[in-house]
Write a structure and sequence with these properties.
- The protein is mostly helical.
- It has two domains: 434 residues, no CATH class; 143 residues, Rossmann fold (3-Layer(aba) Sandwich).
- The chain contains 25 helices and five strands.
- It is globular.
- The N terminus is likely disordered.
C-alpha cells in the first residue's frame, strides 16, 4: 500500500485520510484467507474421515490411509497459520478453536449415538442413574470406583435435565467443551511460561500429538473432563505465583484451590497427577530459592497451594472414596510382577507389541519412530534450557518443572510391555506429554526462525509421523474404526442379540438385579439393561461357574456367596466356546483362564447349566442363555 504524502507546508485532509481506510482491509486479508483455507480443508478432511469409517465397515483395508489423509489435510494448514509470524492474537485463538473442533471429529464420528468403549458404559449408566434417582456416590457395577467421583456425571445429568436432551448428547456437549478447554489451556499455560504466543501455539500442537488426544481423552470418561481441570489449575497456580502480593495473588490462589477440588471430585488419577506436578514445581522452586535465585514469595506460594491441594485430595480419598487405593493397587502390583517375570530366566509376563494387529506396516513403524522423536526433542530441550536462562523466576520454575515431567514419559512407556501396566502407561501419557510439549516448543520456534522453509517442511513431516505413530501405539484399530462384530472386543462385541436379551430381562424381571456374566455381556446388561453384573474376582471367583466341568461339584463356598449375596441370574454367552476374545480377556484381567489360540471353554461347560436342578433356563436366543438361580432346591437336596 502506497501512502500519499502532503506537499511541504500544506495539510491535506484527503491525503492523510486514505491510509486508515485501506489498513483494515489489509489487516483482514490474512483472516479471510485463513478462514477460507480451513473451511475447505476442514470439509475435505471430514469427508475423508467419513470415507474411512465406511471403508472400515466394508473391511476394504483402505481406512487407515483415508483416515490419516483426512487428519493431515486439515492439521498441516492449521499448524502453518498458528506458527506464522503475522498471525494476530484473535486469529490464533480462532485457529486453535477450529483445531479443537476438528480433532474431536474422529471420536464423534466413531460413536455419534451411544457409548461404545468399555468405560463409557459405566459412565453412561452413572449419569443416567443420577438423572433418574437424583443420588450421587452410588456404587457402579461395571467400574467400582466410578460412583465416588461424580464431577462428570453430575454435569452431564444436569445438562440433560435442564435441556431435555439425552444423556449421550448431554455428554457430547460437555466433552466438546472440555476438549476445547484442553487446547486453549495448554496454549495459555505455555504463554505463562514462555511469554510468546507462537511458542504457545506450537506447544498446543505438540501436546495434541500424544496418543490419548484423539480417542481416549475424548471418550465419555472422567479423565476427559479432569485433564482440562488439571491444565487450568496449573495456569492459576502460575498466575498466583507471579501475581503481586494482595488481592491478585489471593484471587488466583482461591481459583487454584477451587480447581484442585473440582479435579479430585472428577477423577482420582488426574488429581494424583496434579499433586505430582505441583510437588515437582515446589522442589524446583525450593532448590532455586536455596541458591538465592528464586524470590521467597514465589516458593512459599507454591508450597502453600500444593499443601492445600494435598489436604483436599487426601481427605477426599480417605473419607469419600476409600476404595480407590484397593482399586488401583492390583494394577501396579501385577505390572511389577510381570516386569519381574520378564527379567527372570523364563522371560514370561510380557506382551508383544502390535500382536495380531491389522494396522499397516507404516503405522507400526511410525509408532516406534515417534518414541525416538520424543527422545531427540527432550535432548534438544535440555540443551536449550541449559544455554537459555532468560525469563522471570516463575517462568524458569515452570520450564524446569515441565522438563522433569516430560522426562517421566520414557520410564512410563516401559509399562506398555506388560499386560497390566499397559493401561496405566496410556493414561500417564496425557500428563507427561504436557511436559514434553512445553519444553520442546521453543526449540521448534528457534529452528523455524533459522531456516523457515527447510525447517518448516521437515517439522511438518515429523508432526505427521508423530501423530500417526502415537495414535497407533495408544489405540487398537477396533477402537478407531467400525467394522463387523468381533467377540472379545470392547467395541465390537455388543451384537444385537445381547442387547435384545438385556432388554427382555429388564422388561420381564425388572432392574437392579444381581447377575453373573462375562465381561462383554456384563457391559450391556449393566448399562442398557440396568442390572448389577459381577464378572469375578479373586475373592469372588464367579468364573468358576463357567470353568467347572460337567458333572463336577461346584465350590460350596462360591454357592454360599451367591446365595447370601442374593444373586438371581446367570448369563451365558456360548460364543466363549467357539471364539477367542480379541483382547485375551473373558471376565477380568486377573482371571485364571488359559489364553491360547483356541477357546478356553467347551460347549459342554457352557451348556451344563441346562441339566443342573438349581439353574433354570428362562431365556435362550442361540448365543445368549439366561438362567435363574434356585438355591432353595440345593438346600432341600441337602436336607
Amino acid at each position: 500500500m502506497t501512502l500519499t504524502r502532503p506537499a511541504p507546508g500544506r495539510t491535506t485532509g484527503a491525503a492523510v485520510a486514505s491510509p486508515p481506510e485501506a489498513a483494515p482491509t489489509a489487516s483482514r486479508r490474512p483472516a479471510v484467507i485463513c478462514a477460507a483455507t480451513l473451511v475447505v480443508t476442514g470439509s475435505a478432511g471430514a469427508a475423508l474421515l467419513v470415507s474411512a469409517n465406511r471403508a472400515a465397515e466394508w473391511d476394504t483395508g483402505r481406512q487407515f490411509a483415508l483416515f490419516w489423509a483426512g487428519m493431515l489435510v486439515f492439521t498441516l494448514p492449521a499448524v502453518y497459520w498458528l506458527v506464522r509470524r503475522g498471525t494476530g492474537a484473535r486469529l490464533r485463538v480462532a485457529v486453535l478453536t477450529a483445531y479443537a473442533g476438528f480433532t474431536y471429529l474422529p471420536k464423534l464420528l466413531r460413536t455419534p449415538d451411544g457409548p461404545l468403549y468399555h468405560d463409557e458404559f459405566a459412565h453412561w449408566r452413572q449419569a443416567r442413574e443420577i438423572l433418574l434417582d437424583g443420588r450421587l456416590f452410588e456404587q457402579n457395577p461395571i467400574v467400582k470406583v466410578v460412583g465416588d467421583f461424580p464431577g462428570l456425571h453430575s454435569a452431564v445429568a444436569a445438562i440433560s435435565g435442564l435441556t431435555g436432551v439425552s444423556i449421550w448428547h448431554g455428554a457430547l456437549l460437555v466433552l466438546m467443551v472440555a476438549h476445547l478447554l484442553v487446547v486453549l489451556g495448554v496454549a495459555v499455560l505455555a504463554e505463562e511460561i514462555w511469554q510468546d504466543a507462537r511458542i504457545a501455539a506450537v506447544a498446543t500442537i505438540v501436546y495434541s500429538l500424544n496418543s490419548s488426544f484423539l480417542f481416549f481423552d475424548t471418550q465419555f470418561g472422567y479423565e476427559s473432563l479432569a485433564i482440562p481441570l488439571l491444565v487450568w489449575t496449573l495456569v492459576a497456580l502460575h498466575r498466583a505465583m507471579r501475581g503481586p502480593a494482595g488481592r491478585a495473588r489471593l484471587g488466583w490462589s482461591a481459583v487454584t484451590v477451587m480447581l484442585s477440588a473440582a479435579t479430585i471430585a472428577t477423577h482420582h488419577l488426574t488429581a494424583l497427577g496434579l499433586l505430582g506436578i505441583m510437588l515437582i514445581l515446589c522442589v524446583v522452586a525450593t532448590a532455586r530459592a536455596l541458591r538465592r535465585i528464586n524470590p521467597r514469595a514465589v516458593t512459599w506460594t507454591a508450597w502453600a497451594l500444593t499443601a492445600a491441594a494435598t489436604v483436599l485430595v487426601v481427605s477426599y480419598l480417605w473419607v469419600v472414596a476409600p476404595r480407590t487405593a484397593g482399586y488401583l493397587d492390583p494394577y501396579l502390583a501385577r505390572a511389577l510382577d510381570q516386569f519381574a517375570g520378564m527379567a527372570g530366566e523364563g522371560g514370561g509376563g510380557g506382551r508383544t507389541l502390535f500382536r495380531e494387529s491389522i494396522a499397516p506396516w507404516w503405522e507400526r513403524a511410525a509408532a516406534f519412530g515417534a518414541q525416538g522423536v520424543a527422545g531427540l526433542g527432550m535432548l534438544a530441550a535440555a540443551l536449550w534450557l541449559r544455554r537459555r536462562r532468560e525469563g522471570d523466576a516463575v517462568s524458569r520454575n515452570g520450564a524446569l518443572t515441565m522438563f522433569v515431567l516430560g522426562s517421566c514419559y520414557f520410564p512410563a512407556a516401559l509399562l506398555i510391555l506388560t499386560p497390566s501396566g499397559a493401561e496405566g502407561a496410556r493414561r500417564s501419557w496425557a500428563f507427561s506429554y504436557l511436559g514434553i510439549a512445553l519444553v520442546v516448543a521453543p526449540v521448534v520456534i528457534w529452528l523455524l526462525d533459522r531456516a523457515p522453509f527447510y525447517s518448516g517442511t521437515a517439522l511438518l513431516a515429523v508432526c505427521a509421523v508423530v501423530m500417526v505413530g502415537n495414535t497407533a501405539a495408544g489405540m487398537n484399530p477396533s477402537y478407531r474404526f467400525p467394522g463387523p462384530p468381533v467377540f472379545g472386543s470392547d467395541t465390537r462385541s455388543a451384537i444385537p442379540e445381547v442387547s435384545a436379551a438385556s432388554a427382555w430381562l429388564r422388561s420381564t424381571q425388572g432392574r437392579d438385579l444381581r447377575i453373573v456374566a462375562d465381561r462383554y455381556s456384563g457391559l450391556i446388561f449393566g448399562s442398557f439393561g440396568g442390572q448389577r453384573p459381577v464378572t469375578g474376582s479373586v475373592s469372588f471367583p464367579t468364573y468358576d461357574l463357567y470353568l467347572a466341568q460337567p458333572g463336577r461339584q461346584l465350590s460350596p463356598r462360591l454357592i454360599e456367596q451367591l446365595s447370601s449375596w442374593r444373586f438371581t441370574y446367570l448369563i451365558v454367552d456360548r460364543r466363549m466356546a467357539r471364539e477367542v476374545p480379541e483382547i485375551q480377556i473373558y471376565f477380568e484381567t486377573n482371571e485364571p483362564v488359559p489364553h491360547s489360540d483356541k477357546p478356553a471353554f467347551t460347549l459342554g461347560q457352557l451348556t451344563k447349566f441346562d441339566r443342573m436342578p438349581w439353574t433354570i433356563k428362562i431365556y435362550d436366543s442361540g448365543n445368549i442363555a439366561i438362567y435363574r438361580f434356585d438355591f432353595a432346591s440345593l438346600r432341600r437336596a441337602a436336607r
